[in-house]
Known about the structure:
Layout: H1 2-18, E1 21-34, E2 37-46, H2 58-63, E3 67-69, E4 79-84, E5 97-104, E6 107-112, E7 118-121, E8 126-132, E9 141-145, E10 158-169
Antiparallel strand pairs: 1-2, 1-10, 2-3, 4-5, 5-6, 6-7, 7-8, 8-10, 9-10
Amino acid sequence: MKLILHLAAVIQLLVAYATASPFYVWNTYIPKKSLHSGGQQFAFFHEAELDDRGRVTCDLLTDTNEIYPACLDASSNWCVVCDGDGCPYDKRDAYKITRLEFHTSWGHYTWYKDQDHRIKDTDGKDVGECIPWGPEGGAAEMNCTFPDSAGSDLRGRYRLGSSALYCKSDIF
């Protein structure tokens, strides 16, 4: 009986993983124009949003609504806490990120490198996984200029983008 219950649990996990929606996390940066604008941000993209060759485009990187500022505490703000030597944009390296806590419009979750790359909700429930994405010791990178149609605070400025994590979960 225990074996049957164990097999049923394993099958349930496999089905959940097989139907999970892939998404990407990018570490981005807008050079500051003034004291209150720009800085480090994290962008989230569904795999379906990528171009026909599976790439993030500048149009996507400069026009996403799922972008959140870096912060030190995500308990009450929509933002992203990044831990590890690969977090600062000037030292970005997806393989050196150890924890990414993201409090977004779709929930509050934390990814842990040292817990088998699992994503946990605030109750500690396992809800998916992420792996570092990009070349070892670096990242896929982009430098994108905002279009003229962007708001006046962004027009003519640019966003730097760097790959960070590839995730599978149904949370986003």
